[in-house]
Amino acid sequence: MTLKDLPPDARPREKLLARGAGALSDAELLALLLRTGTAGRGVLQMAQEVLDSFGGLAGLLHASADDLKRIKGLGGSAKRAELVAVLELARRALAEQLRTQPVFETPGAVKDYVQLQLGQRPHEVFAVLFLDSQHRLIALEELFRGTLSQTSVYPREVALRALHHHAAAVVLAHNHPSGSVRSSRADEVLTQTLKTALSLLDVRVLDHVIVGPGQALSMAEQGLL
Hints:
The structure is a single chain. The protein folds into two domains: 3-91, Orthogonal Bundle (DNA polymerase, domain 1), CATH 1.10.150; 103-218, Cytidine Deaminase, domain 2 (3-Layer(aba) Sandwich), CATH 3.40.140.10. By secondary structure, the chain is of the alpha+beta class. It has helices at residues 12-19, 26-34, 43-53, 57-61, 65-69, 77-100, 107-118, 155-164, 185-199; strands at 125-131, 137-145, 169-175, 204-212, 215-218. A five-stranded mixed beta sheet has the order 2-1-3-4-5, with helices on both faces. Helix 2 (26-34) crosses helix 3 (43-53) and helix 8 (155-164) crosses helix 9 (185-199).
């Protein structure tokens, strides 16, 4: 069944215009971007298969252009470019929000932003959000990769980057490729080590965000800071 075969009020475009984007499923929204399916496969079916291939919307949002190329019907550059562009727009929109508002006023946006950046990485990545005196985002930098511990994340390097950005505060962030976002004892020790080291420079650690596919945890919200 093609979109034209659906009743008018069930077609994604008409449904969106009449009832708003929130009324559409993930597959329907994706179908609007894809526009057409392939031979023997309607665009709605294709959209659902794409979502299933990446484990849902969160996985798709972290897919690269090369990842998308492996999906039947996305071998051409146009559709892949549009999907990657949507992801980049989402990142930029969240970054813009964090650059204009103090991060503690938008904790959900901080977690969303970090998750978009790190949530689907196959390896562990440690990043730092550097903030100005009003706790607005200056920059996010990925500083370390691999298994994280007190010995593999160097406070000196974090301090040097904080001085470079003239940061007044930071939000620490890393991902758990395993999917669980529960903080480990090593995460807690590392957080306290960096908090102590950066305090000597009068730089506050506001939070440590741990992300995984589709979820995020704030150590500050858990009372672990």
